[in-house]
Design goal:
By secondary structure, this protein is of the alpha+beta class. Helices cover about 30% and strands about 25% of the residues.
Length: about 375
């Protein structure tokens, strides 16, 4: 049965949900507050890491589900978005060993390397103690990915409306328990979405994917939402020749380098990008100061001097981005009544985009969600 679905938020997750819902034949409208290709949220820019290597096997499984969907998106949209360059994880041996075990359990290729072997293959990168190379990794072009998802959804009949801010979502479900149970088996149970232009749009179901605006928007809409911190992070690009040939890399602290959270890096059209994971200040996404944090930039410059000889002598170009982080860094992908929530992607969700779109479509159609990502989960999963 085709459903009328409103998707609130046209960033990566909303766009992915719109595409996968459209593929299944549902009538989809995307409502995005800002203009096409905007830089206000968490989905813009030229690069995000794609990788299969996770200490938690369920994330490796989710990335494996996303990989063929990224390729299908490229076919449907005619836009290249995913480039596999391989990736290097290095640092604390226990962390690297765990990744190797999970990849082996998933039947995926990976090879341990010494720091000397890393330097021979990638002279710009200095590895710490022990390293693991895995080829099924690389980068996703963020801006192109969002545009491709919206294009592919549009080709399937979805309507994409920019410049529309949603001010309220009302559950118009019937209240008798048996009726709710019956409608949950077949899909949406009814909602009204009100916009800042005083439109009242009705739908069978609503998908809410509003990124950094989730903590302010969702508590009045669903229960069991974990606390979420919205932070402004400060990565930088080093504009060096050959940046597109670099592997993605993650430095796990605890061996020769000690900074909480670790550091990530990858090549992009803007240069070699590096950033610390989840260390930025808490911000209001509507009123954040996007002025580069000089101290944070200096920390990354100092890191590069020690660990990235390939960017020596290059002045970094700073940028800012938003993280919306849950206490356990697990996502929120669940449904209550007519509302499916996609939130809290904790700085590592982009790579999974199309697979999360699939999970959202399952929820809209009444299928059960994944306990790890549930609203109201009782304890951190890790």
């Amino acid at each position: 049965m085709a459903l009328r679905v409103l998707v609130v938020g046209g960033g990566l997750m909303g766009a992915a949900a719109a595409w996968r819902l459209s593929v299944r034949g549902h009538q989809v409208t995307v409502l995005e507050r800002f203009g096409p290709g905007h830089d206000r949220g968490s989905s813009y820019g030229t690069s995000r890491i794609f990788r299969l290597a996770y200490a938690e096997p369920s994330y490796t499984e989710l990335a494996l589900r996303a990989l063929p969907l990224w390729r299908r998106l490229e076919e449907e949209s005619g836009q290249s978005v995913l480039t596999l360059t391989g990736a290097v994880d290095h640092g604390l041996p226990e962390a690297v060993d765990r990744l190797a075990d999970v990849l082996a359990g998933a039947g995926r290729s990976a090879r341990r390397l010494s720091p000397g072997e890393v330097a021979d293959r990638w002279p710009g990168l200095r590895a710490d103690t022990t390293a693991l190379y895995h080829p099924d990794a690389g980068r996703v072009h963020a801006d192109d990915a969002v545009a491709a998802l919206l294009k592919a959804a549009g080709q399937r009949g979805a309507e994409v409306r920019h410049g529309v801010r949603v001010t309220e979502i009302r559950d118009t479900a019937r209240t008798r328990e048996t009726e709710i149970r019956d409608t949950a088996r077949t899909g949406g149970v009814g909602a009204t979405v009100v916009t800042d232009a005083d439109e009242a749009l009705t739908a069978d179901a609503v998908v809410v994917a509003v990124g950094g605006w989730a903590p302010g928007f969702l508590p009045d809409l669903v229960s069991g939402l974990p606390p979420m911190r919205v932070t402004q992070e400060q990565p930088v690009h080093f504009p060096v020749p050959g940046a597109l040939e670099w592997p993605s890399f993650i430095h796990h602290p605890g061996a020769g380098w000690h900074v909480p959270g670790g550091l990530y890096g990858l090549g992009s059209v803007d240069g070699v990008k590096i950033g610390l994971h989840g260390v930025g200040p808490v911000v209001d996404p509507d009123h954040r100061d996007r002025t580069p944090d000089a101290a944070a930039v200096e920390r990354l410059r100092a890191y590069a001097e020690e660990w990235l000889p390939g960017v020596a002598g290059t002045e970094p170009t700073p940028l800012t981005c938003l993280y919306t982080t849950t206490p356990d860094e697990d996502f929120v992908i669940d449904r209550q009544g007519p509302v499916t929530v996609l939130a809290g992607f904790s700085g590592h969700g982009f790579k999974f985009g199309p697979a999360i779109g699939e999970l959202a479509a399952d929820l809209v159609e009444g299928r059960p969600g994944t306990g790890r990502f549930a609203l109201g989960r009782s304890a951190p999963a890790r």
